[in-house]
Every structure is written in structure tokens, then in C-alpha cells.
């Protein structure tokens, strides 16, 4: 199965260079790397053109966010698989073969989660996404050893993922309303609703630096994450279900933390903006997407600790 590997870049030139060096070692015959640059100002496009001439470079004049950039990159590709790699994810040589293997083995698999490790490689950064009843998303195996049993896989994280092209195109790709964060959750739910299944590829590994695009817990990151939460809550009608009380509790805790810790209502305002952006369209949460093991207490514990 040939793959188009899409890397979205925004500044971070040295991280992008290291990412592409690792991908160069992982590519097989027929694979292609596509770099979509979101108007970097640090010379990233020139560096890619000079040092990685084998990569297809799409240099934009504006920053359209992660999802729209990925959609643009996939539109110019022809590979049977679409592989997404964050610009600060440094993959192992066998990454592409491992992450496409589940789709080669089972035609029902439309999306695959790769495994990212924190620097040092001893514990996991993420192994796909698990969802609680309120559609809060958590990185599976976060900060745990990679050989432990993970929670239920809802879908891959957009930073280390593979999609069957027919599935991705059939679902319309990522929703452009989501600049960053939440777009992978939304796509996973839509793919499941269309009949596709998700698989995990534990041998598709890479080291993820984390926070290179927006900064860990920066105002921009918190604003984008809050927007995504509001968007998903409304699109999937969470507040009309029995999960409404727990979802409201979690959102209140997050907004309250922002007010106490950072003296800002940004998380709340962002959620309101995301709610409005979702419009009137409602989509069902497909069966099997929710991990019932994540109760309210566990959700709060994960909020207190790094998710």
C-alpha cells in the first residue's frame, strides 16, 4: 500500500528538518512526502526545497490551520494511504510499513493509530484517542509504558495516523471549521458512522517533542482546544444525552481552572465560539466509540494530570 505522508509546518524549521530526515529513512518505493507550509516566516519552505527536493512542497501565503492544510496536501497525492506525521514527530525507519499494515490486512480498516513516545522513549505520549461519554478525548497510554494494555481506541490522533484514502475522501476529510485540535476526533466519529473501523499499529513508532506548534498550555493552544470542545459538544448533541451532567462538570472545571490559574475567561469564550460555529447540524455518536471505563472520577484524574 503506497502512502502519501503529509507534514504540516509552521515555523520550527529545525524540527521540520529532523522530521523529514527520519521520514526519508522510513519511505519505501512509491511513498511520497508532501509538506504543506502554513506561511512560515523562519525560512522553512526554502530549507525544505533545498535539503529535501524529493518532497512535494506546498507553500501557502496564509495559515489555514492543521485540518485545511492536510486536506490540501491529500488533494495533490495519489497514494492508497494518507499518513499524517506532526512536524515534531521523529519516526523510526519501519514506521510507514507498520502503520499501513492493518489496512493491508483488513479492508474494513479505514484509520490506524501509530504510537508516539515522549523524548527518552520510556513512556508513551499517545497511542490514538479514547473518548469518554462526554466526548472528552484522551491520549491512550499517556505517560505509561508502551507494553501496558491501552483503553478502547476511538480513532488515531492526527499527529501520528494513517487513513485509507477512499475512507478519508469519502468522509470529506477534516472539517475546515476546526483550525487545530478536535478535527481528528470529528473525523474518527464520521468514519465510524460510515462503517469503517479503527486499528492500532504498536510497531509504528516515533518520538514526539510536543507543543512545537502552539506551545504547551499557551493561550493559543487553550483557545483552540476550547473552540474544538464547544464544536464537538454541539455537533454530536452531547448536552442532549445522559452524559450532559458530566460533560458540563468537566467543562466547568476547565473554565474555572483557566479563571483561577490564568485569570482569563478564554476557555469559556472559546467554547461558546466553537458551539456557535458547529451550526445546526447534528451527528450521532457511533456505537463502540466511547470507552465506558472512563468514569467521572477517572476523567477528573486525567484532567489533573497531563492527558
Compact summary:
The chain is an alpha/beta fold. It has helices spanning 13-26, 44-51, 65-75, 95-105, 165-170, 183-193, 219-235, 244-262, 266-277, 296-304; strands at 3-9, 32-37, 56-59, 81-85, 89-91, 109-117, 124-126, 129-131, 137-139, 160-164, 197-208. It is globular.
Describe the protein's architecture and organization.
The protein contains 10 helices and 11 strands. It has 307 residues and is of the alpha/beta class. It has 2 domains: 206 residues, Spore Coat Polysaccharide Biosynthesis Protein SpsA, Chain A, CATH 3.90.550.10; 86 residues, no CATH class. The strands form 2 sheets. Strands 1, 2, 3, 4, 5, 6, 7, 10 and 11 form a 9-stranded mixed sheet that branches. Helix 1 packs parallel to helix 2 and helix 7 packs parallel to helix 9. The chain is globular and about 50 Å long.
Amino acid at each position: 500500500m503506497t502512502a502519501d505522508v503529509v507534514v504540516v509546518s509552521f515555523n520550527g524549521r529545525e524540527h521540520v528538518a529532523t522530521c523529514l530526515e527520519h521520514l526519508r529513512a522510513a519511505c519505501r518505493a512509491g511513498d511520497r512526502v508532501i509538506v504543506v507550509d502554513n506561511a512560515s516566516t523562519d525560512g522553512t519552505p526554502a530549507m525544505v526545497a533545498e535539503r529535501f527536493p524529493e518532497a512535494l512542497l506546498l507553500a501557502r501565503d496564509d495559515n489555514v490551520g492543521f485540518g485545511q492544510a492536510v486536506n490540501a496536501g491529500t488533494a495533490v497525492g495519489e497514494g492508497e494511504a494518507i499518513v499524517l506525521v506532526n512536524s515534531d514527530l521523529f519516526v523510526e525507519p519501519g514506521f510507514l510499513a507498520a502503520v499501513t499494515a492493518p489496512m493491508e490486512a483488513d479492508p474494513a480498516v479505514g484509520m490506524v493509530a501509530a504510537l508516539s513516545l515522549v523524548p527518552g522513549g520510556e513512556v508513551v505520549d499517545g497511542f490514538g484517542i479514547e473518548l469518554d461519554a462526554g466526548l472528552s478525548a484522551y491520549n491512550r497510554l499517556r505517560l505509561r509504558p508502551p507494553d501496558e494494555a491501552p483503553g478502547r481506541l476511538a480513532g488515531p490522533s492526527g499527529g501520528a495516523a494513517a487513513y485509507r484514502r477512499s475512507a478519508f475522501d469519502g468522509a470529506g476529510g477534516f472539517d475546515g471549521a476546526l483550525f487545530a485540535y478536535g478535527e481528528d476526533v470529528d473525523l474518527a466519529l464520521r468514519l465510524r458512522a460510515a462503517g469503517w473501523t479503527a486499528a492500532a499499529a504498536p510497531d509504528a513508532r516515533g518520538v514526539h517533542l510536543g507543543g512545537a506548534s502552539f506551545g504547551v498550555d499557551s493561550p493559543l493552544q487553550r483557545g483552540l482546544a476550547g473552540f474544538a470542545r464547544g464544536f464537538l459538544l454541539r455537533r454530536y448533541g452531547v448536552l442532549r444525552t445522559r452524559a450532559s451532567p458530566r460533560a458540563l462538570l468537566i467543562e466547568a472545571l476547565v473554565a474555572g481552572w483557566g479563571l483561577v490559574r490564568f485569570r482569563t475567561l478564554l476557555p469559556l469564550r472559546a467554547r461558546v465560539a466553537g458551539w456557535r460555529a458547529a451550526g445546526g447540524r447534528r451527528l450521532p455518536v457511533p456505537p463502540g466509540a466511547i470507552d465506558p471505563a472512563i468514569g467521572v472520577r477517572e476523567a477528573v484524574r486525567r484532567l489533573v494530570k497531563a492527558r
